[in-house]
Amino acid sequence: MPFPPIDPEIRERVRRLELAFNRFGYDPYGISQEHLAQFFTVLAWFYRRYFKVQAFGVEHVPARGRAMLIGNHSGGVAIDGAMVLASIFLEKEPPRLAQGMAEKFLGKMPFSSEWTLRLGQLTGLPEHATRLLLDDRLLMVFPEGARGTAKLYKERHSLVRFGTGFIRLALETRSPIIPFAFIGGGEVMPTIFNAYRLGRLLGVPYVPVTPYLIPVPRPEPCEVYYGPPMWFRGTGTEDDHVIDGYVEQVKARVAALIELGVARRKSGDRTSPVDWSAFGGVGERANAEREVAGHHEAAVVTEAAPTRAARRAKPARRAPRGRR
Q1: 3-class DSSP state for residue 289?
Q2: What's the longest Cα–Cα distance across the chain?
Q3: Does the pTM of the predicted model rise above 0.70?
Q4: Given the DSSP bridges, would you call strands 122-123 and 98-102 parallel, antiparallel or unpaired?
Q5: 301 band by pLDDT with thresholds 50, 70 and 90
Q6: Alpha helices in the chain (DSSP H)
Q7: 3-state secondary structure of 54
Q8: Domains defined along the chain, listed by start
Q9: What one-character DSSP code corresponds to residue 32?
Q10: CA Rg, the chain, in Å?
Q11: What does the buried/exposed string (b/e) look like for 46-66 if buried means 16 or more CB atoms within 10 Å of the residue's CB?
Q12: pLDDT tens digits, one per residue of 71-114
């Protein structure tokens, strides 16, 4: 597949990625500097010129160390994931590579299987996610899964059920959660119907159908909002109702970021700075930065105080009398 010449700026940013590349340009996961440079040269054009993405709160993403980006799906295909990758790579100083959990069907396709590997987007298995975080990587997760990308245009600003695995993973690895909201994916791919039967024939979950029939993304502006880090105490072995409570807190934070983004869109404001005071203060960010830098002595818990919720839930952990 032909690619345009690599942008010198992109090559320099790839060079500055703090990954353990060997002299051949590969890191221990098989990520390739050359593939990254080619990919982000193309992606930067879409990010800056086609979708004109505006990113807010990038400073909330730790410069180093493990962290989890948790956000919403928006649109019939994963435009949101690609633009989040681009925003972290292009807007962060130093640049970072976010690594997502790719859908399993991508690993079955000859072209995509190689490229997802060379770009660090591993198949969505728990052991892959755990290893990435223990290696202090930046992990991107969409807890809505394929249900999220299947949202129709009228549902574009809603959230479907979040899976719970990401919270157990965050607790097990003591990783901060950076909630984010992606706005505009529904306009980019205004899905009115999902052709599941056709998708099965093609080896994909579904094929989105738009008012203009073919699923080609439109050049609509997009925004991504990164909220302050959220921390939770625990080991990942908590009872389901405790984990569910943590999941709901993260989901509520993502929903609040979506609401913020939609309100700014309606007002015609896509450029002014965001007042983050309602989402956590500077002290929370500073504590999170210290944690991510490797000082894991104490976790910072967000506004809803999940530790208190967990303490109230402790009596319920005992199995009822007579239960095996």
Answers
A1: helix
A2: 69
A3: yes
A4: parallel
A5: low
A6: 8-15, 33-45, 79-91, 110-118, 126-134, 146-149, 165-173, 185-188, 196-202, 240-266, 282-292, 306-313
A7: strand
A8: 8-313 (3.40.1130)
A9: B
A10: 20
A11: bbeeebebbbbbbebbbeebb
A12: 999 877 789 999 999 999 999 999 999 999 876 655 566 666 77
